[in-house]
Amino acid sequence: xxxxxxxxxxxxxxxxDLDPETxxxxxxxxxxxxxxxxxxxxxxxxxxxxxxxxxxxSAVETGRRPPTEHFAANADKALxxxxxxxxxxxxxxxxxxxxxxxxxxTHELSAAEIRLFELGIIPGxxxxxxxxxxxxxxxVQRGAITEQQAEERLALLAKRQRxxxxxxxxxxxTVLDESCIRRPVGGHSVMAAQLAWLAxxxxxxxxxxxxxxxxxxxxxxxxxPVYLLALPDRSLMSYAESAHQGRLERxxxxxxxxxxxxxxxxxxxxSQAASVAMIREVMRGNTP
Length: 288
Description:
By secondary structure, the protein is α/β, with parallel strands linked by helices. It is built from 13 helices and six strands.
């Protein structure tokens, strides 16, 4: 009866599809859902067996909440899976991705509009492979991530970039703080190629690229990187991060002011033509 009730209330009809290749969190969520489905249990029934709510189960299955070691151990006990889920949860905790980012990526892959603001570094979606590899190598050398985590980052980035080629392609709006184009990464040749790629991207009909110059000063709207998505159903979400924390927001109360601030930033930033001119000027300084 509870299984039937779950179907009637939309647990199966409206379930969110997961791509296990997106992140360790998504892979765990998909595995948990498959094991639960094999037993014919609803999320509430599994929650009862684990001592948590069905809402918590749903959040883990859809990647909105990463599994803790305690959660995974309880899931193994309830599902009779030895320590398989607990071992999978270790990969989630060892990932190089900040909380909230894996779920952001799942929505980015299908977004109708993508708005980016970055400081100090070219956004991943716009990076050349050599630039991305240099960034990852630097993180490994600093001890911030392992070589395996660097490979994970680069594989995910390649997948995100391929999604820009879908039909129809998403509209991509990007505002780069001037520091993004002036901070050298990977040496002169890597940086020159990266800047040339930015200029090429600006020529695409689905891309708007602008630079927020240093002299914008206090009029710059954001002090941290901000990503905004408009999904095919026109709903909005935002993702913002610091060095150690990421936060995904769906509440229109939170996202709408960020979108307004982004529009204000676009109005204050250089035009695309002036931005490309600045990029080309910096590029000439990086050409050997």
